[in-house]
Specification:
Two copies of one chain form a homodimer.
Chain A: H1 3-17, E1 18-32, E2 35-43, E3 49-50, E4 53-57, H2 62-74, E5 80-87, E6 111-118, E7 132-139, H3 150-163, H4 170-174, E8 179-180, H5 181-192, H6 198-208, E9 211-217, E10 227-231, H7 233-242
The structure holds a DNA duplex (30 and 30 nucleotides).
Organism (chains A, B): Flavobacterium xinjiangense
Protein name (chains A, B): Nudix hydrolase domain-containing protein
Domain Nudix hydrolase (chains A, B): 19-160
Chain lengths: 248, 248
DNA sequence: TTAATATTGCTTCATAATGAAGCAATAAAA
DNA sequence: TTTTATTGCTTCATTATGAAGCAATATTAA
């Protein structure tokens, strides 16, 4: 079915079941190939890239809405979600739905609640929906041109992620269960957008006492095989309460 | 005019001018008498305490709404505002409007966007409105019993304030232009809810290089007169970009 | 089979920051 | 004039950080 027809059909039902003027947009982060990736979809026909998002049922709260929307996209449940900002500018929609009647659900003024989500890249199975013709991971420095204000939603998500690196279990939710110290460092470097000293990172991470060193190493790569670690989730959560780099 | 009548009259107009299902609630912090205070209002007749809040005009964004609502309450413009969370639970309203018809604006399901505001206590003139019979500052450890979920909105505001102490100009916006080192320390201690070592606080604050020491001291109190300082706002803003206690 | 290579695990040394304690100066009160 | 509590600022011991490097090692090349 073509885009316009789908949109108009959905619109008719939307008024009854969703909270008006409100949507949720999610910046879904995954870590793969020493790169931070983001989930993006392309809308049929109008050929614009967007962040996964959706509306809020009258029967659910925001977190439930975001979970439902992401479950439909990824097949994953209990995804780590963090709300970070409401996008409420009057002109944020651009002119995407200009040719539609004013009663179209999608053409209303929408405020969008931005969530970032952290997923284990390998646990996600991308699911297409009926208004998209593409749904894929893109590296954060090769993002497509986004529709509406989705670029600034992404930007704010990344800034928030950076600020919360010492307060939230970001490594735990982005990395697979077992990982190496160089992988963890790379993740930190990408999020912080700066190089870190290898020896000092190693020393500091170990002193936090939140990692469990496993009796395995990651064979197969060139050069010396790095040790594998996993998070000691109890100690990790406890340390995060105070913040990993406690200021005062 | 009595509460019910006012509410019903307002409701009729509200449907036309406000974005439905959405409100803004503000936790307004002020610092006075070595105490952190919060602005609270009491609703007429139903005799419940609430945070200052209001609805969002169809012609404004959230920040503009919060500014307008607080200007009406305090007479102050350009108040420092920080959005921190959307409160969206289904049962958050309690039963405050049970006896009203279902078409009443206020009885709809509302999501509330929480902002915290920082004001110079002495620059604020409290203004009553027509549905309140009290509007006053309360010390944060002597808060009244709040209606709806306003207590948890306050709690989250304070936690956010604590987390952002190294990233946002919190001291600058809460203190008067001139202040003493012990006052600044007291503010930090209240927000962090813990005692700080005096000499170390002094040394650390000076090393940040964000304060200008004035050629005056605060006379009149008992004992030695403390020096007066003001923020070097340019250096302060610059230092905040990296975070006052940079973790990485 | 052996040597070369890049990476990793971990340490060392110099410097900076922090925690704890205290001394001298001072403004008001006794 | 003396007492008092507070303030400005320093000292010393401890801990954290920045920069650098050495030995071990898994792969690849010779």
């Amino acid at each position: 079915m073509e885009f316009n027809k789908i949109i108009e059909e959905k619109s008719a039902k939307a008024w009854d079941i969703y909270i008006p003027n409100l949507s949720v947009d999610c910046v879904v982060f995954g870590f793969h190939d020493v790169t931070l990736k983001v989930l993006v979809t392309r809308l049929k026909d109008i050929d614009l890239w967007a962040l996964p998002g959706g509306y809020v049922l009258k029967t659910e709260n925001l977190m439930e809405a975001a979970n439902r929307i992401l479950f439909n996209r990824t097949g994953a449940e209990n995804i780590y979600l963090q709300e970070f900002k409401v996008f409420s500018d009057l002109n944020r929609s651009g002119g995407v739905f200009d040719e539609f009647p004013d009663t179209l659900w999608n053409k209303q003024r929408f405020l969008s609640v931005g969530f970032y989500a952290l997923v284990d890249f390998h646990q996600v199975n991308l699911v297409m929906d009926d208004i998209s013709d593409a749904c894929e991971w893109k590296s954060i420095d090769e993002l497509p041109h986004f529709m509406m204000d989705h670029r600034s939603i992404f930007d704010k998500a990344l800034i928030t992620l950076r600020k919360q690196l010492n307060d939230k279990p970001i490594g735990y939710n982005l990395l697979p269960e077992k990982f190496t110290m160089p992988e963890l460092q790379k993740l930190y470097e990408i999020i912080l957008a700066k190089k870190l000293n290898r020896g000092n990172f190693y020393r500091k991470m170990l002193r936090y006492d939140i990692l469990i060193k496993l009796d395995e190493s990651r064979k197969g790569g060139a050069h010396k095989a790095p040790d594998l670690y996993q998070f000691d989730i109890e100690k990790y959560e406890k340390a995060l309460k105070e913040g990993l780099n406690n200021g005062w």
